[in-house]
From TrEMBL:
It comes from the Bacteria. It is found in: Cell inner membrane. This is Lauroyl acyltransferase. GO terms for molecular function: acyltransferase activity. It comes from Mucilaginibacter limnophilus.
Length: 293
C-alpha cells in the first residue's frame, strides 16, 4: 500500500515538473548533469566499459570526451522525456519534424503496412510521440512493460496521447493480425536486449558479438510490411528531425537475417557518426554467444 502511494506521489511530481517551460527544465538538466557525472558517478563504469569495447581504436581522452558529452545529453533527455507528459501538439510539431513524411504516405497509398525500426538514440520517446501526429492511419508502438504496474499504465497513457496504440512485445503479433485489413505503421525498438533464453541470433555490433531480437524481421515477413529506419537527429537543444529511411521494401524476398543485419548496421552507422546520442548507460552486452563461452 505504501509503495502504491509513493508511486502516485512520484507520478504527481513528474506531472508538475512537466508543466515547467523548456528553459527552466534545461537549467534543471544543467544541474542534473553535474550531479550524475561528477557527484554520483551514475553508471560511469558501465559507460566507460561500453565505450572502450565499442571504440578500441580511440584514445582514452577521446572516449572520455564522448562519455562527458553523453552524460550532458542524457540530462537533457531526462527532462525532455518528462516534458513529454504534457507537451502540446503545436510544440511537438516544432520540436520533432519529419522532413520526408511523403515516403510514409507513398507506402500507405500503395496499400502497404510499415514497420519502423528505432534505436535508443537521440530522443526516441519524443520520436514516438511525434510519429503519432504525422499520420491518421493506425499507429502501433511496441513497448517493454515496466515492472511497476502503476508507472506502466501511466506511461501507456502518455505515449498514446496523440492516437498511438501501445502493445506489449508479447502481444505484437496478435495485434497486427487483428489489424491485418487496416493500414498500420508499427514502431519497434531495434536495440533492445533480449532475455538470454530468447537470444537466438548474434551479429557484430559496435565491435562485439551482440544478441539481437528478430521481431522486426519476423513481423515484416509475416505481414509483408515495408521496413524503414526512423533516423532521429538532434538539430539543436530540444529540436530534432526524424527521417524515414527505407531498408526493405519486399521483405519476403530477403534472405534469412538480412533485414536484421540491415537495421543493426544502420543504427551502428548513426552511432559512429555522433556517438554521444546513444544510450551508453544501458547494459547492452549482458551475456555472450555460445561461441564466445
Amino acid at each position: 500500500m505504501i509503495n502504491k502511494g509513493l508511486s502516485y506521489v512520484g507520478i504527481g511530481i513528474l506531472y508538475l515538473i512537466s508543466l515547467l517551460p523548456f528553459w527552466l527544465l534545461y537549467l534543471i538538466a544543467d544541474v542534473l548533469f553535474v550531479l550524475m557525472y561528477y557527484v554520483i558517478g551514475y553508471r560511469r563504469k558501465v559507460v566507460q566499459d561500453n565505450l572502450k569495447n565499442a571504440f578500441p581504436e580511440k584514445g582514452a581522452e577521446e572516449r572520455q570526451l564522448i562519455e562527458r558529452r553523453f552524460f550532458r545529453y542524457f540530462a537533457d533527455l531526462v527532462v525532455e522525456t518528462i516534458k513529454g507528459i504534457t507537451i502540446s501538439e503545436k510544440s511537438l510539431r516544432q520540436r520533432m519534424q519529419v522532413p520526408n513524411i511523403e515516403i510514409i504516405e507513398k507506402y500507405f497509398g500503395e496499400g502497404r503496412n510499415i514497420i519502423g525500426a528505432v534505436g535508443h538514440y537521440c530522443n526516441w520517446e519524443m520520436g514516438a510521440l511525434g510519429f503519432s501526429i504525422y499520420t491518421n492511419k493506425n499507429r502501433v508502438i511496441v513497448y517493454k512493460p515496466l515492472s511497476s504496474e502503476i508507472f506502466d499504465n501511466f506511461f501507456i497513457k502518455v505515449r498514446s496521447r496523440f492516437g498511438a496504440t501501445l502493445v506489449s512485445m508479447k502481444n505484437t503479433l496478435r495485434k497486427l493480425v487483428e489489424l491485418k485489413n487496416e493500414l498500420t505503421m508499427s514502431v519497434l525498438v531495434a536495440d533492445q536486449t533480449p532475455v538470454q533464453h530468447e537470444a537466438h541470433f548474434f551479429t557484430e555490433f559496435l565491435n562485439q558479438p551482440t544478441a539481437v531480437f528478430l521481431g522486426i524481421e519476423k513481423l515484416a515477413k509475416l505481414t509483408n510490411a515495408v521496413v524503414v529506419f526512423c533516423d532521429i537527429k538532434r538539430v539543436k537543444r530540444g529540436y530534432y528531425t526524424c527521417t524515414f529511411v527505407p531498408l526493405a521494401e519486399e521483405p519476403k524476398q530477403t534472405a534469412e537475417y538480412e533485414i536484421t543485419k540491415l537495421h543493426v548496421k544502420y543504427l551502428e552507422s548513426m552511432i559512429k557518426h555522433e556517438p554521444q546520442y546513444w544510450l551508453w548507460s544501458h547494459r547492452r552486452w549482458k551475456f555472450k554467444s555460445r561461441e564466445q563461452n
